[in-house]
Amino acid sequence: MDNKKATSAAKDFSGDDKIKKTRRPMKKKVCEFCEKGIAEVDYKDVSRLRRYVTEKGKIISARTSGCCARHQRQLTTAVKRARMMALLPFKGE
Ligand SMILES: [Zn+2]
Fold first, then answer.
1. For a surface tag, which of 11, 14, 50, 62 has the fewest beta carbons within 10 Å of its beta carbon?
2. Which CATH number is associated with domain 29-93?
3. Taking the complete model, does pTM exceed 0.85, yes or no?
């Protein structure tokens, strides 16, 4: 929305057609498990796992969750285990 404003304002008589898209500065995400000093992700910790699962039951990617590679790997297995134990749904409503 405000992006359009910026581009139209930037359209001067500079002759430059290619306007670089302005990227919002990314918020620095810190791995929650690293921050709290959790070495192993527990599949029984459903309340925490739920935050890394969408409404449809999909596992949120590391890119959006902000998890480090090590914990994201553990998280996926933990969610899959939780599904098998019927703690988390395979498919959301
Ligand atoms: Zn981590």
1. 14
2. 4.10.640.10
3. no
What are the residues whose beta carbon lies below 5 Å from ligand 1 (ion)? 31, 33-34, 68, 71
CA 56 – ligand 1 centroid, Å:
24
- Distance of CA 88 to CAs 10, 11, 66, 72, Å? 49, 51, 21, 17
The whole-number mean pLDDT for each consecutive block of 10 residues of the chain, a chain of 93 residues, reads 51 62 79 93 94 94 94 96 94 79
Q: What is the DSSP letter of 37?
A: T
Domain ranges of the chain: 29-93
> 69 C-alpha vs ligand 1 centroid, how far in Å?
7
Residue with tokens 């791995």: 31
